[in-house]
Amino acid sequence: MSGTSPALQPPADALTPVRHPDAPAPGEPLGSHYAECFGCGDGRPHGLRLQARAGEGVSVTAEFTVRPAHQGAPGLAHGGVLATALDETLGSLNWLLRTIAVTGRLETDFQRPVPVGTTLHLEAEVTAVSGRKIYSTATGRIGGPDGPVAVRADALFVEVKVEHFVEHGREEEIRAAMDDPDQVRRVRAFEVNP
Ligand SMILES: CCCCCCCC/C=C\CCCCCCCC(=O)SCCNC(=O)CCNC(=O)[C@H](O)C(C)(C)COP(=O)(O)OP(=O)(O)OC[C@H]1O[C@@H](n2cnc3c(N)ncnc32)[C@H](O)[C@@H]1OP(=O)(O)O
User: Fold this and answer.
1) pTM, two decimal places
2) Strand spans (E) along the chain
């Protein structure tokens, strides 16, 4: 069973997404947006360490290999971890738009169990943009990039200013991020390339 709620249907006057001229070339790795991110950072021992690459247009591909720390049932990936993989992949799309955005809504279909040791091959694309709202969709396949779909999601991301994180984040992590020149450079790339 799968389906998408009306909240994830773009309005009739939504625009076709436009890849930012400075977006990484197709095939180029996007890198982590934050080393401590549970989805893509290498600073979290049990994190997903998901690696995304730019695709054509406003699309990305990514891989995530399920480890024992990611189990829900014995030998199977936890659904919330799979949703995280979809969320992270969808979130990385915003780098191609040079827009900072957070997940507002994420609707997930779990179509096949995903065993520990499996590599999930993810693909995502932005389908429409309407004001601050970014509509996107993703699939995760097993057994190879052309294997059967195990999980899929539709999402709405909402554009925010960098102040969103400064205002809501815990002070010690925000301070550490601001003291990290690589982090500051990455955030500036968004601010100077509107
Ligand atoms: C140098 C130091 C700083 C470091 C900076 C680091 C930079 C890092 C770079 C990149 C980070 C990306 C991280 C990726 C990680 C993976 C993605 C995640 O997991 S993100 C975490 C989970 N998500 C949240 O925590 C959102 C929590 N929610 C909110 O903050 C708000 O609700 C927010 C921003 C989503 C919306 O709040 P509003 O007050 O700004 O705007 P309103 O007016 O409510 O919504 C705008 C439009 O969106 C629709 N909308 C909002 N939420 C919706 C929903 N759930 N379903 C449907 N529509 C929704 C509304 O109906 C409205 O639409 P109409 O303009 O009226 O047509």
Assistant:
1) 0.96
2) 51-54, 59-65, 101-110, 119-130, 133-141, 149-159
Contact 20, 97 (CB under 8 A): yes
Nearest CA to ligand 1 atom 32: 104
Residues 189, 194: Cα–Cα separation, whole Å: 9
* Residue 49 CB burial class (10 angstroms; 0-12, 13-18, ≥19): buried
Instruction: Examine the domain organization and report whether 69 and 141 are in the same domain.
Output: yes
The CATH number assigned to the domain holding 52 equals 3.10.129.10
Label residue 101 left, alpha or beta by phi (over 0 means left) and psi (-120 to 50 means alpha). beta
Mutate which of 5, 102, 126 for ligand 1? The one with the most ligand atoms within 8 Å of its CB, which is 102
Which value does ipTM take for this structure?
0.97
Low-confidence ranges of the chain (pLDDT < 70): 1-3, 191-194
- Give the nearest ligand 1 atom to 133 CA: 48
Range of the domain at 79: 16-160
Instruction: Look at residue 194 in the predicted model and tell me its pLDDT.
Output: 44
**Would you state the pLDDT for residue 143?**
96
